[in-house]
Amino acid sequence: MRPQDSAGDPAVLAEPAEVAEPGLQPAAEAPPGAGEEPAAAEAEGTPGRGRCWLCSSSPCCSHAEPEAKKKAACPGLGLFYTLLSAFLFSVGSLFVKKVQDVHAVELSAFRCVFQMLVVIPCLIYRKTGFIGPKGQRIFLILRGLLGSTAMILIYYAFQTTSLADATVITFSSPMFTALFAWIFLKEKYSPWDALFTLFTITGVILIVRPPFLFGSDTSGMEESYSVHLLGTLAAIGHAVFAAMTLVILRKMGKSVDYFLSIWYYVIIGLMESTIVLFVIGGWSLPDCGLDRLFLILIGLFGLGGQVFLTKAIQIEKAGPVAIMRTMDVVFAFIFQIIFFNDVPSWWTVGGAFCVVASSVGAAARKWMQNSK
User: What is the C-alpha to C-alpha distance for residues 257 and 313, in angstroms, rounded to an integer?
Assistant: First the structure.
């Protein structure tokens, strides 16, 4: 599904509608004999469930309208869930930025442990097993490896560059997804997709500001350019790996349970993080009690964001959800100004405009196509 959250499961960050599909539950089957109830009731001279004495229609016209009104009792609830998930994801990213004494790989390991404690009971309850279908296991392993790598990269990006820059670059993931889907899944890649990709690349260039285009101007950067470059490259890497993860999820479709996909993500992520920490010798518990609290809150807010995003996708169309998800960028700008006293430069604002406009344009176009 920040996609795992936007700072966690990259597939959730990239295109939530596609990620959550495997987790949607089919409608419950009707009990035996349910379809025979109206006929039996009519034979006895009494109205069956949903059939009216006054009119022979089923359900009665007088009851159909209130039922329709009941379904539309909370218009915009899905968008509210999306906004709430964006806020929770952004707060989780803020905590990642605040924890500076813990390596990004170690943060990923803690996150995997926390999610594992939640996923295991879900798998047991749903009786899906822990291995998965035989023909899908290689894709599950790739999904776990690519997804966990994307998580490590985005945590590193949050720690080494500004919150706004890293968040904006993550929204380039849908453009990479369209490109990879065209290459590997033979999906259509239209001129509009090419235009949106060009906008995204322009926005990323404005944020990265390579010296061969912008000279030695580093105004608006809170860190040295070399550190800024490493952070932005990590964010771009996250977008690429998240896009590849989403393509794999599309390849698997609904044949694999959503929680099983998360299981591979967290177990492989924990193994990968442990190996990397052993190689670099970076394992250490935070000295400050506040940092330990942040570690717990990162998991809690990330999980909460993922839950609300999944709920939003279940009751709202994918287009409006994808558009509302761009509020991540707004929250990132606000948090960066309030908590770090760092006003984003005009280069970052321009880059954010290009990337967000590209994401909104792609989502709106897909929404209109599906509405026809």
Answer: 16
Largest Cα–Cα separation, the chain: 88
Two tokens, residue 293 = 């609290």
How far is the CA of 117 from the CAs of 6, 13, 263, 300, in angstroms?
20, 22, 10, 12
CB 248, CB 142: distance < 8 Å: yes
Do 33 and 49 contact (CB within 8 A), yes or no?
A: no
Q: What is the rounded distance in angstroms from the CA atom of residue 257 to the CA atom of residue 265?
A: 13
Give the tens place of pLDDT for each residue, 257-293.
888 988 999 999 999 999 999 888 777 777 767 888 8
Record the tokens describing residue 228, joined without a space: 């800024």
Contacts 24+ apart (CB under 8 A), 365-370: 365/192, 366/318, 366/319, 366/322, 367/317, 367/318, 367/319, 367/320, 367/322, 367/323, 368/319, 370/317, 370/318, 370/319
CA dihedral 87, 14, 313, 256 (to 10 degrees): -130
| CA dist 54 → 16, 37, 47, 309 (Å) | 47, 18, 10, 44
Integer Cα distance of 50 and 63 in angstroms: 8
Residue 195 to residue 365: CA distance in whole angstroms:
12
Opening angle at CA 120, ends 306 and 248, nearest 5: 55
Predicted local confidence at residue 213, as pLDDT: 67
Q: Which amino acid is at 143?
A: R
The span from the CA of 237 to the CA of 228, in Å, is 14
pTM of the model: 0.75
pLDDT in tens, 181-196: 899 888 888 898 899 9
Q: Which two tokens stand for residue 88?
A: 């929770």
Which are the contacts of 286, defined by CB distance < 8 A and separation ≥ 6? 99, 101, 102, 292, 295
Calculate the dihedral angle through the C-alpha atoms of 181, 186, 192, 197, rounding to the nearest 10 degrees. 30
Residues in the chain, total: 372
CA atoms of 174 and 6, how far apart (whole Å): 13
Region 74-88 average pLDDT: 88
